[in-house]
Amino acid sequence: MPDIKHFDPDTALDTAVRLFWRQGAASTGIQDVVTATGLNRSSLYATFGGKQELYRAALRRYIEQRSQPAFRRLAQDERGLPAIADFFAELIRARCSGEHARWGCMVSNAHAGAENGDPEVRGLLDRHHQQFREALRTALGTAGARGDLSPDVDPDTAADLLALLAYGVNLRSRAGADASALGRTVTAALASLASLDGRAKP
User: Fold this and answer.
1) Which of 48, 161, 174, 200 is the most exposed place for a label (fewest CB within 10 A)?
2) pLDDT of 181-202, one tens digit each?
3) How far apart are CA 194 and CA 187, in angstroms?
4) Per DSSP, what are the bridge partners of residue 194?
5) Nearest 5°: CA angle at 68, between 184 and 55?
């Protein structure tokens, strides 16, 4: 079997991300990782530690490679509400079609699972939420500066609302929700935030 010196830890970690993402931490045993990577247990333990340490590393990798780039793009997009609409459209597309369809989001899955009882995992989830909320708040601030937000909309509250909506999309898509139905919900939520002038824009 492969020796620890003869495998790429990054490749093994990417495999673990896929396993934990698709199956959840509770349903993924160390033998699943051994089988998927072709590595032996001693190599995995020597490199990553036990299953919980491996899960933490996988969750960090998921956030760094998937969540944070999306948050940066959203915050840096100067279109405001259309940027948020595109973020949700891509989220729904990724959750309902393609390679990772019906896997949900590894972060949302962790929020809903027993793994959030680990204080280190909880810290990762809390930081992820704060980064997401800040990206939404920035995009909403841009929308407000453009005159696209209704004057009675509080951007901080709206950021919380949209973050919760994204978690709902992630969980409902994993349960088999229809992409068009999710899209209609998002459209209605964004319409409720838009100014009358903003709603009239193409």
Assistant:
1) 200
2) 999 999 999 999 998 664 544 4
3) 11
4) 149
5) 100
Q: Please, what is the average pLDDT of the chain?
A: 93
**Nearest-angstrom CA–CA distance, 142 and 37:** 45
Cβ-contact 135, 71 below 8 angstroms: yes
User: Greater confidence, 198 or 44?
Assistant: 44
CA distance 109 to 103: 9
Quick check: 133 and 160 in contact, CB under 8 A? yes
What are the residue boundaries of the structural domains of the chain, listed by start?
Answer: 60-200
What is the pLDDT, as a whole number, of residue 173?
97
Average the pLDDT over 27-34 and give the result: 93
For the domain with range 60-200, which CATH number is right: 1.10.357.10, 3.75.10.10, 2.60.120.510, 1.10.10.10? 1.10.357.10
Q: What confidence category does residue 4 fall into, taking pLDDT thresholds of 50, 70 and 90?
A: very low
75 vs 195: CA distance, rounded Å: 20
